[in-house]
Amino acid sequence: xxxxxxxxxxxxxxxxxxxxxxxxxxxxxxxxxxxxxxxxxxxxxxxxxxxxxxxxxxxxxxxxxxxxxxxxxxxxxxxxxxxxxxxxxxxxxxxxxxxxxxxxxxxxxxxxxxxxxxxxxxxxxxxxxxxxxxxxxxxxxxxxxxxxxxxxxxxxxxxxxxxxxxxxxxxxxxxxxxxxxxxxxxxxxxxxxxxxxxxxxxxxxxxxxxxxxxxxxxxxxxxxxxxxxxxxxxxxxxxx
Length: 240
Ligand code: UDP
What we know:
Blueprint: E1 2-5, E2 8-11, H1 15-25, E3 32-35, H2 39-45, H3 49-56, E4 60-61, H4 66-74, H5 85-96, E5 102-107, H6 112-123, E6 128-133, H7 140-150, E7 154-158, H8 163-171, E8 179-182, H9 186-191, H10 199-203, H11 207-214, H12 219-222, H13 224-238
Parallel strand pairs: 3-4, 3-8, 5-6, 5-7, 7-8
Antiparallel strand pairs: 1-2
């Protein structure tokens, strides 16, 4: 079932259901893609029709962040909960360990993506990581060529939003992959250079606050959150 929040059609799924859908997409012909919008991306879509079309055209639209869940609640369309992109992909990796499915990591700074691959290989010894490329390239073609040389089943695209969403859409037709997932700063987390909030904070829905505490410069980006929620109240009142 889809739930509309701020004109984005989110898939209303539990984390387990999301992984089931993700695994099924690995066996679906063509290059499918997954997006993980948070309120910041949903808000950006209001002024970027191209981004909005890409996000709504995804095969799976996961509610990454408690802000989306609050927004849905305010609109009177409660969701099952958030599905953090980072957790989703770790669950996928756990499932992929017992299969012959392969993954390629694209994004983050040189050195960081390799470290992420190293850490993920220790955490998931059965995971088949068939390649890595950093996210600071000038031309798409050589990167696409490197990826196609190993035809991974899953491609992580971690270039930050909205770059990663636009990159996936622009390259989907020429990429020999089954599934792509746009996952922002996840490789930084897997490499251990960005720390995720402790579970207690996550359970309280305060991961964003922890991140702000660690990286105060994110305050400008996060300032869209109140505007986003107030806009949802306005929509509820207006019956939209
Ligand atoms: N990044 C990249 N290429 C770029 C710009 C950014 O690979 O041209 C990477 C950056 O190094 C970081 C990620 O994209 O690993 C963005 O992280 P951020 O936390 O800003 O993303 P969010 O999860 O907030 O979208």
